[in-house]
Write a structure and sequence with these properties.
The complex is a heterodimer of chains A (305) and B (498). Chain A is an alpha/beta fold. Chain A has an 8-stranded mixed sheet with strand order 3-2-4-1-5-6-7-8, with helices on both faces. In chain A, helix 8 runs parallel beside helix 9 and helix 9 packs across helix 10. Chain A is elongated. Chain A starts with 7 loop residues before the first helix and ends with a helix. By secondary structure, chain B is α/β, with parallel strands linked by helices. Chain B has 3 domains: 84 residues, SRP54, nucleotide-binding domain (Four Helix Bundle (Hemerythrin (Met), subunit A), Up-down Bundle); 209 residues, 3-Layer(aba) Sandwich (Rossmann fold), CATH 3.40.50; 177 residues, 434 Repressor (Amino-terminal Domain) (Orthogonal Bundle). Chain B contains 23 helices and 8 strands. Chain B has an 8-stranded mixed sheet with strand order 3-2-4-1-5-6-7-8, sandwiched between helices. In chain B, helix 1 packs antiparallel against helix 4, helix 2 runs antiparallel to helix 3 and helix 17 crosses helix 19. The radius of gyration of chain B is 26 Å and the shape is globular. Chains A and B meet through helix 3, helix 7 and helix 10 of A and helix 2, helix 3, helix 6 and helix 9 of B.
């Protein structure tokens, strides 16, 4: 099944560190009988998971209310409560990749510097290749030194085609060539890598819009997917990133990278709540195999099990 | 990057400053607001809590509550505490004799290590040091190539008396986890080579790694042991959330860091990591990465940052930026011209261009005391400056030397040439006339008077910063302000970002 199945074990493994950091202390905490000070402590833990101040305050208020009303008495009841509420925050959304009905499916990938775009692309490329789809990479990061080489090495390791331009060249021109090549060679999926850019750099964001427009011109309905790669260690700024990238290239899904550290991934909750962008994949390791589709229920379950 | 914090701090502290008398409860309330602002800015929970508790304690300890101007007292306390939270910092790099001074960079994946290595090399080159960049990242595909390219770029494009060399062993690269230990050997070889070539500073670019990966953290310890770097810097992404604490702590425990480089501060991050790092590791931020350009690295100054957070501006940095662009002689020549009232459009264009080299208008205006809040929602479009440049460039040499020549017909021609409207040309010349009259007048004043005459810019703050460099700024400040006013009229303060 590869990418489109779901390996519960892998997510659990990837989230082991997360669980250790967030859940174990919470569990320890909740062994005790519920009291105001335990709830205060819980507030601190939730904030530390990057869920965000607003969401935390909202959750804690509800817990406090239920506690005062005598509906919640024991700590473990709080866990059930949190679980139910967190899952509720991920309304059903289409998390599969949209493939083109005919012709190549174009997936445009963007993100800030160092988010993990190129590695994430390698992961998606491998998963698709393993499903017997033909994959082509477009190296549109013509800005950062050796970015093209980096993607080229991945293309060699994975045995997939690559279209590249010169460093310092026009990335939109590379995208144009790549789209043309993808149509000509009849590949199934074209993955477009772009240079990392801060969402606050207007001119760079406009360049990204241009790349998107070029794809749309060459391939009907392209890009079929626009993935924003977000570093899981990012704090509340991830919301700004998602907002501005959405404005520029109409992001259709998130790739949450580096979830295998101690970062608690709480930002997923905040993003889901404030922006209507589904998280589609999570990166849970260093090798091209370490990618999983995002499943909120199992994700939250893995957090609490 | 600090708009959000500045606004929240202002709101909280303003609630105190309007009153003649405040109670302890008032202080607590204000600080609760500050705490939430800090948390929303990704300051670590414990750090935010301790910070606010400390401020409340100090406010109770000193006579804030009895004081006649409690608001100002509070601002001072918060300012001091902020400075204490981030400093003290010694950005000076200790060089060893005989060289090379070895600097090791480490950090998580994607934090910006390699780019920072290049920027640091540029910084040192400007200071006249010979630098060797050594590629010890053998895992990320093409990382060696990236550093090599950066080394060449710095050597070719950055002006400075120093030199930048590169050391790498691309044939030693391997996939993730398969090259553990090899980096140690590469670093040793790099040190040997650096000694042989007598470079002053050797910078080791290590691979990105997770702080919980024992193998790779072990590798860093081995490198530490083998080459015994004099300085170890941790590179942290300014946008990191609550997890910044965990990774910084882990790196510090394993390696005994000397300092931190905060990367990507040109984003709209609210600065949480900047405020958190020092109190968690005890190690200060030494440098901050401020842009895409290869020399966009600045020394970190806690006082200035605290000033910016509290909306007090950062005139010192502004003056420094100005000094980088304009030499002493140029400034003196200009001043003489101004004194005689002989400022030409060409001078104005030069000034405009050097201001633009310093950064975007919004950034610059934000450094002026009290301006940060006013311009926060304004859409300051640097494109308008392009227009101004175009207008001046459409003038003949004669017209530039003597703008009085510009009658209606000439203005029409200039407007046509620059793709603007006649009234826009008139606006520029009118503004220019006002400016030259003003500068002529000011040239006769004492320096303090000059500063005072820049009304509306928070005279007291400016005056208290002494006189160095002050007068040199006046043209720029004035033109910046004028532009701002014009903008206000034409756009009605349209906001792009909330």
């Amino acid at each position: 099944m590869g990418l489109f199945g779901f390996s519960f074990k892998k997510v659990k493994q990837g989230l082991a560190a997360t669980r250790k950091a967030l859940i174990d202390p919470i569990r320890q905490l909740l062994m005790r009988e519920l009291s105001d000070s335990v709830i205060d402590e819980l507030e601190a833990r939730l904030i530390q998971s990057d869920i965000g101040v607003k969401t935390t305050v909202h959750l804690i208020e509800q817990i406090r209310k239920s506690y005062k009303a005598g509906e919640i008495k024991r700590g473990d009841e709080v866990i059930d409560f949190l679980k139910a509420h967190l899952i509720e925050m991920f309304p059903p959304a289409d998390r599969a990749i949209h493939f083109a009905e005919s012709g190549p499916t174009v997936i445009l990938v963007g993100g800030i510097n160092g988010a993990g775009k190129t590695t994430s692309i390698a992961k998606i490329a491998k998963a698709l290749r393993d499903e017997n789809k033909t994959v082509m990479l477009a190296a549109c990061d013509t800005f950062r030194a050796a970015a093209v080489e980096q993607l080229e090495i991945w293309s060699q390791r994975l045995g997939v085609d690559i279209v590249k331009g010169k460093q310092g060249g026009d990335p939109a021109a590379v995208a144009y060539d790549a789209c043309e090549a993808a149509v000509a060679r009849g590949v199934d999926v074209l993955l477009v890598d772009t240079a990392g850019r801060l969402h606050t750099q207007d001119h760079l964001m406009r360049q990204l819009t241009k790349i998107r427009d070029v794809c749309a011109k060459k391939v009907p309905d392209a890009p079929h997917e626009v993935m924003l790669v977000l570093d899981a260690t990012t704090g509340q700024n991830a919301i700004n990133q998602a907002k501005l990238f959405k404005q520029a290239i109409d992001v259709t899904g998130l790739f949450l990278s580096k979830l295998d550290g101690t970062a608690k991934g709480g930002i997923v909750v905040a993003i889901r709540e404030q922006l209507d962008i589904p998280v589609k994949f999570i990166g849970v390791g260093e090798t091209p195999d370490d990618v999983e589709p995002f499943d909120p229920e199992k994700f939250v379950d893995a957090l609490f099990s | 990057m600090l708009d959000h914090l500045t606004e929240k701090f202002n709101n909280a502290l303003r609630s105190l400053s309007g009153r003649g008398k405040i109670s302890e409860d008032n202080v607590r309330e204000a600080m609760a607001e500050v705490r939430n602002a800090l948390l929303e800015a990704d300051v670590h929970y414990d750090v935010a809590k301790t910070f606010c508790d400390d401020v409340v304690k100090r406010a109770e300890g000193t006579d804030v509550i009895q004081s006649l101007r409690p608001g100002e007292q509070m601002i001072k306390i918060v300012h001091d505490e902020l400075v204490g939270l981030m400093g003290p910092v010694d950005t000076h790099i200790m060089y060893v004799q005989p060289g090379p001074t070895v600097i090791m960079m480490c950090g998580l994946q994607g934090s910006g290590k390699t780019t920072t290595c290049g920027k640091l090399a540029a910084y040192l080159k400007k200071k006249g040091k010979s630098v060797m960049l050594a590629a010890a990242d053998l895992q990320r595909p093409a990382a060696v190539e990236q550093l090599r390219t950066l080394a060449t770029q710095v050597q070719d494009d950055v002006t400075g008396p120093g030199a930048v060399k590169f050391y790498g062993e691309p044939d030693k690269c391997a996939e993730y986890g398969k090259a553990v230990g090899v980096a140690v050997k590469v670093c040793r070889n790099a040190l040997k080579e650096a000694r042989k070539q007598h470079v002053d500073v050797l910078i080791l670019d290590t691979a990105g790694r997770l702080h919980i990966n024992d193998d790779l953290m072990g590798e860093l310890r081995q490198v530490d042991k083998a080459v015994q770097p004099h300085q170890i810097y941790l590179v942290i992404d300014a946008m990191t959330g609550q997890d910044a604490v965990n990774s910084a702590k882990a790196f510090n425990e394993q390696l005994e860091l000397d300092g931190v480089v905060l990367s990507k501060t040109d984003s709209d991050t609210r600065g949480g990591a900047a405020l958190t790092v020092k109190s968690v590791t005890g190690k200060p931020i030494k440098f901050v990465g401020t842009g895409e350009k290869i020399d966009a690295l600045e020394e970190f100054h806690p006082e200035r940052m605290a000033g910016r957070i509290l909306g007090m501006g950062d005139v010192v940095s502004l003056v420094e930026k100005a000094q980088e662009q304009v030499s002493q002689e140029e400034a003196e020549a200009l001043q003489e011209k101004m004194a005689k009232g002989k400022l030409t459009m060409d001078d104005f264009l030069d000034q405009l261009r050097s201001v633009r080299k310093m950064g975007s208008m919004k950034t610059l205006l934000g450094m002026l005391p009290g301006m940060g809040q006013q311009i926060k929602n304004m859409d300051i479009d640097d494109e308008q400056l392009n227009q101004t440049e175009a207008i001046i460039q459409s003038m003949s040499k004669e017209e530039r030397n003597n703008p009085d020549l510009l009658n209606q017909s000439r203005r029409r021609r200039v407007a046509k040439g620059s793709g603007t409207r006649t009234d826009e040309v008139s606006q520029l010349t009118k503004g220019f006339d006002m400016m030259s009259a003003m500068t002529k007048q000011m040239a006769g004043m004492s320096k303090l008077q000059q500063l005072r005459s820049l009304s509306g810019l928070g005279q007291q703050d400016l005056a208290s910063f002494g006189t160095s460099g002050g007068p040199r700024l006046k043209t720029k400040e004035r033109s910046a302000r004028k532009r701002k006013d014009r903008k206000k009229k034409s756009r009605g303060g349209k906001s792009r970002r909330r």
